[in-house]
Design brief:
Length: 126
């Protein structure tokens, strides 16, 4: 049985789609995608550089294994904003990982947070 391939997903603002990377190379763009065993990554140094220079680059993404799981009603929305470091839940907590995450066609992102300690209070470089 082959090992599932982990992919990176980030929002492509120009195409209004989700870019999918495998081994650092974009292999496609999709309107929506779901991932399991998700780790959320962002670079605070790149975020600050984008703010300072007024440029855009990919400095926040989700890594996980694609799945066909449907989004359940108990999934919670999370966001990434240039104004503050890290992916955040609605209450401001930093989200580091999720059991499953859904990246929707409208650009929204939803997750089932892992039961482990994956949420931090305040902002840190994740």
């Amino acid at each position: 049985m082959p090992t599932p391939v982990s992919v990176d997903v980030h929002r492509n603002l120009t195409r209004r789609a989700w870019s999918v990377r495998v081994a650092g190379r974009v292999v496609g763009h999709v309107p929506a995608i779901a991932l399991r065993d998700v780790v959320l990554r962002s670079s605070n140094a790149s975020r600050i550089r984008c703010l300072r220079l007024g440029t855009r680059d990919v400095h926040a993404w989700a890594r996980g294994i694609p799945t066909d799981a449907a989004r359940p009603p108990e999934a919670v929305r999370f966001r990434y904003r240039l104004a503050e470091p890290g992916f955040r839940l609605a209450d401001g907590q930093v989200l580091l990982a999720a059991e499953v995450a859904w990246f929707e066609e409208d650009g929204s992102a939803w997750c089932l947070a892992s039961p482990d300690a994956n949420v931090l209070i305040g902002g840190t470089d994740t």
